[in-house]
Amino acid sequence: MLEKNLQDKMALVQYMIQKKRKKEIKGEFDPTHGQGRILASLKEYDGINLRDLAYALDLAPSSMSEMLSKLETKGYVTRDVDENDKRAQVIKLTDKGRGVGQETQTEECDLFSCLNDDEQKNLDMYLGKLVDSLKTKLEYDDEKIERKMNKVRGK
After folding, report:
1. Is the pTM of this model over 0.70?
2. Which fold has domain 28-106?
3. Per-residue pLDDT tens for 97-146?
4. Taking the mean position of all CA atoms in its chain, how far away is CA 27?
């Protein structure tokens, strides 16, 4: 019973965090979802090839290609042939795409301000234990965990 209650509360907190994030988004793109994730990643890795970007964002190349087509049509990105591999495409931000970053920044989350320092440290420890347990059960390696964390962070 207690475990179900904890799971329900965690799901509710996750839902409410997403709602708070959406409310704070300024501009057209959410940097943690879909096309916004691509733009946020390209700000860090401009000029990356499609396959590497799809891998980094944990998206199927076909899904990536569809979202890139929409971004390209809107004038946010360009796709060029890779000089080193003529079969691959290099994705680059346009000036318009670079400007989107200013609009999509969210404010720092004050979610944990209701907890004192000791409570925050304890929560961090407990969440770390949950992540380690699930990592083992799901057979996630550190690289996959890092990709998932980047996905959560919108990178």
Report:
1. no
2. Arc Repressor Mutant, subunit A (1.10.10)
3. 888 755 444 445 577 889 999 999 999 999 989 988 988 888 888 887 78
4. 17
